[in-house]
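BACKBONE GEOMETRY TOKENS:
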Amino acid sequence: MKERKMNIVDLENNITDGIRIEEMLGAEFDYLRIDELGRSYSRSEDKQLNKDFKNYYDREAEKYRRIMRKEEGY
């Protein structure tokens, strides 16, 4: 079983373009590995991948908001 690794930026671009895991993997790979999300996804896990990505994105946005508040003195 071969995994294709993808970084979070490329994943975001693919998700926003509506590309499914099956298309990201092609015929050569069995799983999609996203280290930032801490797991691999099979061809049929598009819903889980979208959910995990949204949670990751929300956490990162909250980290950024906290940094900005700190810098502004709130």
Remarks:
- Residues 20 and 46 are 6 Å apart (CA to CA).
